[in-house]
From TrEMBL:
Keywords: Membrane, Transmembrane, Transmembrane helix. Residues 1-21 are annotated as: Disordered. The chain crosses the membrane at residues 27-50. Residues 1-20 have a biased composition (Pro residues). This is DUF3558 domain-containing protein.
Length: 220
C-alpha cells in the first residue's frame, strides 16, 4: 500500500528530542569576572612599577672639587649615590681655612630604586665651635623625632642625629671632629616597597653614611 500523503514530515512533537538551548548568563558572568581581574592586575602592576621606578639621573660629567673627588666609588656605591653633582659642590677659602661642600645622588640604571641623597661638608678651622654648631643645627630639624647618640671610632668625637618621621623618609646626619677639621655627612632617602615607599633599615642606612664619613676623614 502506498504511504499516505502528508506523513513525510513527523507531526509536531514527534522525532528525536532537541538539546536544550544554552543560556548566556554564565558567559556574561565570565566576561565580567575577566574584566575585573584585568583591572585589578593592571592597578597593582601600575602601583608596583611606580613604587619601584628608577628615580636616578643620567651620569654627569665634570670634576668634583677638593676632597669630594677623593671619596672612593665603593663608598658611594654602598650609599647608592654614585652620581656626583659638581654644580652643587664647591670649595672655598675662608679666613682660617677652607669649606668644602659635596653632593651626590643616584645614577640612573646603577643605584636602584627608592631615593638616596648624600651631602657632605668639610670645614677646616675653628673645629670645636663648628662641631657644636652643626650638632645643634641638626637637632633643630622639625620633620620628625630626633634621636642623637655618640659614635665610637670616628675622629676625636662624633655624633649621629637621626630624624625619624611618620613617613618612610629618613635623614641621618653624622658630624665628626678630627683635629682642626669637621666633617658632616647628611644622608637622606627611603626604600621602595611592593606598592609604595617603605622606611629603610636604620642600621644599613647608618653604615652607608658612616662609610662616606670615613672616606672623607681619610683625606683630611
Amino acid at each position: 500500500m502506498p504511504p499516505q500523503q502528508g506523513w513525510q514530515q513527523p507531526p509536531p512533537g514527534w522525532g528525536p528530542p532537541q538539546p536544550p538551548g544554552k543560556g548566556k548568563a554564565p558567559l556574561i558572568v565570565g566576561i565580567i569576572a575577566g574584566v575585573v581581574l584585568l583591572a585589578v592586575a593592571g592597578t597593582f602592576g601600575f602601583l608596583h612599577l611606580g613604587a619601584n621606578a628608577d628615580g636616578g639621573s643620567p651620569k654627569r660629567g665634570g670634576t668634583m672639587p677638593g676632597v669630594c673627588a677623593d671619596v672612593p666609588q665603593a663608598a658611594l656605591a654602598e650609599a647608592r649615590t654614585t652620581n656626583g653633582n659638581p654644580a652643587m659642590s664647591k670649595e672655598r677659602k675662608v679666613a682660617d681655612g677652607t669649606q668644602t661642600s659635596c653632593a651626590w645622588d643616584q645614577t640612573k640604571g646603577v643605584d636602584g630604586s627608592g631615593l638616596r641623597n648624600t651631602d657632605a661638608y668639610v670645614v677646616v678651622g675653628d673645629a670645636a665651635g663648628e662641631y657644636e654648631r652643626r650638632v645643634s643645627q641638626s637637632k633643630q630639624n622639625n620633620q620628625g623625632t630626633i634621636n642623637e647618640r655618640p659614635l665610637d671610632g670616628l675622629g676625636d668625637e662624633a655624633t649621629a642625629v637621626l630624624v625619624d618621621g611618620k613617613s618612610a623618609f629618613l635623614q641621618l646626619d653624622i658630624i665628626v671632629r678630627k683635629g682642626d677639621t669637621v666633617v658632616e655627612v647628611e644622608y637622606t632617602g627611603w626604600d621602595s616597597g611592593m606598592f609604595g615607599n617603605k622606611r629603610p633599615d636604620v642600621a644599613e642606612f647608618e653604615a652607608a653614611a658612616r662609610g662616606v664619613a670615613e672616606a672623607l676623614l681619610a683625606e683630611v
